[in-house]
Specification:
Oligomer: single chain
Number of strands: 9
Largest sheet: 9 strands, mixed
Structural class: alpha/beta
Strand content: 5-15%
Helix content: 40-55%
Bound molecules: guanosine-5'-triphosphate, magnesium ion
Shape: elongated
Radius of gyration: 33 Å
C-alpha cells in the first residue's frame, strides 16, 4: 500500500513538473525580441515598363510583345564620363595613322626627294598611291598634278616639298567639302535624327556610342535608338555606351520590328526635348526581307515624325575597295549623307578616304582611329594630310 502511494506521488510530481516546463517555454517564446526593422526581407518585384534596374543580360521581352522600352541611364550624374573635347582630335590621335604615314606620306616624300624624277620614279609614286587604296582615278589625277608642279616649280627644299605635297593631298581630299553634321534640333524643337547604317562588324554601334560622346562633349543632349534587334547583345552594347555619358537608350524586343524601335526612339527624343536622336541599325538580318528593304522601311517610318537629318554609312577602312562596292548598295537604298570611315588605325591604306569619296560622291565626315571611347574624330582634311606627312622636322 505504501509503495502504491509512493508511485502515485512520483507520477503526480512528474506530470506537474512537465506541465510547468512546457508553460514556461511558451512564455519565453513570446518574450523573444521583435525582428529588427533592418532584417532582410524578401524583395517584392513589381514589373514596370521602364525597368532601369534590369541587369545587362536580363532577358528581353518575347518577340510577340511589341513593346518598346526606354532605359534611362542607371549611373548617377557624378559617375558619368567626361568625354574629351572634339576640337583637334585628329592631331591628338595622329600617331594612330602611323601605318598610313609611313607608306603613303613618307613614301611619297622620299620618292619626290630624289635628285632625278624619271619615269620609273613616277611609276613608283603611282604604285604607292594605288597601294594606299587611293583608287585609279584619284591616283592618276594626283600624279598628273604633282608632275606639273614639280616641272614648273623646279627643285625645292624638303620644307617646300612637304608644303607642295600637303597642298595636293588636301586638294585631292577636298578642302571645301561640307562635312558638318546636322546635329542641332529643328526650330520647332524636334531633335535632329541621325540614322547609322552599314554591313555587320564595320563599327556602327561603336560609332553611335562614340558619336553620343562627341555630342555630349559639345554640350548636346542625346537619345539612342537600338534598332538593331537582330541580337539582344546589340541593344545592351548601345545602352552601355549611353549610360557612360547619361544618354537614354530606347530598345525593343529581340527580333522585334526595327522600324518601330526607331520610331519610338524619335518619339522619346521629342518628348524629352533632346538635341539629337542617334539610331543604330543591324548589319544583317535573319528574316527573308532584304536588309536594304528593312533600312528603307526604318527611314520611312521614322520620317512620320519628320525628315531624317543625316544617314551615316559606316565603312571599315581595312576592307578597302570591297567596302566601297558594298557601300554603293547602301547609297542606292537610303540617301546616305556622310561616310564614317572606321579602323583607320589598323591600316596602311589611308588613301581610301580619297577613293571612297570619289566613288560614292559622299563626304567622309568622321573617322575612327581606335577602340577607345574617344577615338572618333570629325574629319578635317588639313589635319589628316598633316598626320599623313608627319612632322616637318622628322622628314
Ligand atoms: N581598331 C578599331 N576598331 C574599331 C573601330 N571602330 C570599331 N571598332 C571595333 O570593331 C568591332 C565591331 O564594332 P561594332 O560597333 O560592334 O560593329 P557593328 O557594325 O555595330 O557590328 P554589328 O552590330 O554586328 O553589325 C568592335 O570590336 C569595335 O571595337 C576603330 O575605329 N578602330
Ligand atoms: Mg552593332
Amino acid at each position: 500500500m505504501e509503495l502504491l502511494v509512493f508511485v502515485v506521488l512520483v507520477l503526480v510530481v512528474t506530470v506537474v513538473t512537465t506541465v510547468a516546463l512546457v508553460a514556461s517555454r511558451g512564455r519565453a517564446g513570446r518574450a523573444l525580441p521583435p525582428v529588427p526593422p533592418s532584417a532582410p526581407r524578401p524583395v517584392e518585384t513589381t514589373p514596370t515598363a521602364t525597368d532601369a534596374a534590369l541587369p545587362a543580360d536580363a532577358p528581353i521581352l518575347p518577340a510577340t510583345t511589341e513593346s518598346v522600352q526606354t532605359a534611362p541611364p542607371v549611373a548617377a550624374p557624378a559617375a558619368l564620363d567626361v568625354p574629351e573635347p572634339t576640337a583637334g582630335r585628329i592631331g591628338r590621335l595622329r600617331a594612330r595613322l602611323a601605318r598610313s604615314q609611313s607608306t603613303l606620306g613618307r613614301g611619297l616624300f622620299t620618292l619626290l626627294s630624289r635628285d632625278v624624277l624619271d619615269e620609273d620614279t613616277w611609276e613608283e609614286v603611282e604604285d604607292t598611291l594605288l597601294q594606299a587604296d587611293m583608287g585609279v582615278r584619284a591616283t592618276s589625277e594626283l600624279v598628273e598634278r604633282l608632275r606639273t608642279r614639280v616641272r614648273v616649280e623646279g627643285t625645292r627644299s624638303p620644307g617646300e616639298l612637304r608644303t607642295l605635297l600637303r597642298e595636293e593631298l588636301v586638294t585631292a581630299i577636298g578642302a571645301d567639302t561640307d562635312r558638318s553634321l546636322k546635329t542641332l534640333p529643328h526650330p520647332d524643337g524636334r531633335p535632329s535624327v541621325i540614322l547609322v547604317v552599314g554591313v555587320n562588324g564595320t563599327g556602327k554601334t561603336t560609332t553611335c556610342g562614340k558619336l553620343a560622346r562627341v555630342l555630349v562633349a559639345d554640350g548636346r543632349s542625346v537619345v539612342l535608338g537600338a534598332a538593331d534587334t537582330f541580337r539582344a547583345a546589340a541593344a545592351d552594347q548601345l545602352q552601355t555606351w549611353g549610360e557612360r555619358v547619361g544618354a537614354e537608350t530606347v530598345r525593343g524586343p529581340e527580333a522585334g520590328d526595327p522600324a518601330s524601335v526607331a520610331f519610338e526612339a524619335v518619339k522619346r527624343g521629342i518628348e524629352a526635348k533632346v538635341d539629337t536622336v542617334l539610331i543604330d541599325t543591324a548589319g544583317r538580318l535573319h528574316t527573308k526581307t532584304g536588309l536594304m528593304d528593312e533600312l528603307g522601311k526604318v527611314k520611312r517610318v521614322v520620317e512620320k515624325h519628320g525628315p531624317v537629318d543625316e544617314t551615316l554609312l559606316v565603312l571599315d577602312a581595312t576592307t578597302g575597295q570591297n567596302g566601297v562596292v558594298q557601300a554603293r548598295v547602301f547609297t542606292e537604298a537610303v540617301d546616305v549623307t556622310g561616310i564614317v570611315l572606321t579602323k583607320l588605325d589598323g591600316t596602311a591604306k589611308g588613301g581610301i578616304v580619297i577613293s571612297v569619296q570619289r566613288e560614292l560622291g559622299i563626304p567622309v565626315k568622321l573617322i575612327g582611329l581606335g577602340e577607345g571611347p574617344d577615338d572618333l574624330a570629325p574629319f578635317e582634311p588639313e589635319a589628316f594630310a598633316d598626320a599623313l606627312l608627319g612632322d616637318e622636322a622628322a622628314l
